[in-house]
Write a structure and sequence with these properties.
Layout (H helix, E strand, L loop, with lengths): L12 E2 L2 H21 L18 E2 L5 E14 L5 E14 L4 E15 L3 E3 L4 E11 L5 E9 L30 E13 L2 E10 L1 H4 L15 E12 L5 E12 L6 E12 L2 E10 L6 E12 L2 E11 L6 E14 L2 E10 L9 E9 L1
Antiparallel strand pairs: 1-6, 2-3, 3-4, 3-19, 4-5, 5-6, 5-7, 7-8, 8-9, 9-10, 10-11, 11-12, 12-13, 13-14, 14-15, 15-16, 16-17, 17-18, 18-19
Amino acid sequence: MRIDVKTLYPLRTKIPLSVCMASFHSLAFLIFVTAQFAPTVSQAAGDPPYRLGRGLALGNTGITIGGYASAKYKDPANQPWKAEISDLSLFVSWDSGRRWQAFSEMEIGEAVTLDRDNISTNEAVFELERTYLDWLGINGVNLRFGKFLTPVGHWNQVHADPLVWTISRPLTTRAGFANHSTGVMLFGDRDFGEGQLDFQLYLDDSADLDPKKDKRSPPLELGAFDNAVGARAVYHSPDNRWQIGLSAVDFKANHLADRWTIGGLDFLWKHRGFELSAEVVARFDCGNEWSAFLQGVAPVARHWYLVDRYEEFNQLGFDGHVVTNTLGLVFSPLPPLRFKFEYVNGNDVKGLSEDGFSASAAVLF
């Protein structure tokens, strides 16, 4: 599978540079100020106070509304700088109080983009990221129906900007398999020794069920599954400081001539602000196609964290072998709020990896 990278639409509306930069700085400032006051705001008299990052419960309806927003500034080594409101995401969840739960995530990506003298909304794209209904069964075994994030590794299931440490996403987590699946999933957890084992078994039929289906051209999203069958198991240590996961999926992807079978191994450890994580994804059905990253996080001052990630990416549907090192600095005054500064250095491969500096502000509502 050789996937062409989409080119950007031309930016048309012209505004002065000073207005562009002022808009970006104002957005970052607004997010920061909102975060300081939001934890003290109450829904209504007698209701528990709203807490940033926990969503807003609508009375006794069982409905909770949340979401996140992020803004990014990118200055690639060989291209002009660019700033964007990259994600405006809305979460809507419902809990019946018994056996039924539902969740939906709707997102506008690249809502506003700007460069040295242009601003545009031409690249704005609406995405139905997730929408599913859960039936909570017995003995920790549950069923999910709808569109959900493909359970390969841990990053793909928590990749919202305020919840991850870097601005750039590892290629290991976004190439080689579809980020979304549409179908049915059996999931739950079990005591396993002194720890806990989580499991997910799923059947995907995106070609027939995905709400974005469009048989004109191209159908679905780039690289989406036509159909797939997969599984994931994660062991959590008794103190929940570390986890290790195994993933496997056999699939036919959009515009892919043959079926693929891939497997993944991932690890995550956390303790007192320190974090170490890694993921490996490889193909089982052909030659040497694989990808892996190792990432470390260390606290360096109050609310400040240093991040370093090394990654190697070998094809998995793309031309070129990519090796990158990502160095980042993160300021997180509150858990749902992160300001990130990042520099990527490696062998620059067009469409896959770009060297350069970037910054972002992200908040979880």
